[in-house]
Amino acid sequence: EEGIPCESCGNLIPFSEFEKHNAEHQRDIDNARAAREAQPKANAKQPATQPQDV
């Protein structure tokens, strides 16, 4: 079966499995992004509450 090279991992993925394979990478990417974004959001609230010099 012909395959498509995966942009994320470089492996040759059969056409029949490519969509599933891509979805797994996307899930991993989304999970990593959510974990990364959860931390700055907690810290981002603090500077907004500090008094500003006028």
From TrEMBL:
Q: Please list where the region (Disordered) is annotated.
A: 20-54
Basic and acidic residues: bias regions: 20-39
Where on the tree of life does the source sit, at the highest rank? Answer: Eukaryota
Protein name (Swiss-Prot/TrEMBL): Uncharacterized protein
Report the source organism. Answer: Streblomastix strix
